[in-house]
Structure formats: C-alpha cells, structure tokens
Design goal:
Shape: rod-shaped
Helix content: over 70%
Radius of gyration: 24 Å
Order of helices and strands: H
Distance between the termini: 80 Å
Largest sheet: none
C-alpha cells in the first residue's frame, strides 16, 4: 500500500469511529429538543400568560 492509501484507510477508520460516537449524542440531542418543544415551552407560555394577565390587571 502506498502512503496515500494508508492515510485514506486511517481516515476512513477514524470517520467510522467518530460517527459511532456521534450517534448517541445526536439521539440525546433529539430527545432534549423534543422535551423542550413538548414540555418546557408550553409551560413557559402558560407562566408568561399568567404573568401578563396579572400585570395587565394591576
């Protein structure tokens, strides 16, 4: 094998390892985004609405 072929093989191996390590992080990020969108954001909107209503009353 030439040096370029060896470098390409090493590069491919590193890319595979990187992708394997990145997949769990991507999954966790997706779950966090869904939690923010489905749980946290509606609660914040509700809190904001309550504070705004109270502010407008007084």
């Amino acid at each position: 094998m030439t040096d370029n072929e060896l470098l390409l093989a090493i590069s491919n191996m590193m890319n595979e390892k990187f992708k394997a390590n990145l997949t769990p992080i991507e999954n966790r990020l997706s779950r966090i985004e869904l939690t923010l969108e489905n749980d946290i954001k509606p609660r914040l909107n509700s809190i904001e609405s309550c504070y705004t209503d109270t502010f407008n009353r007084y």
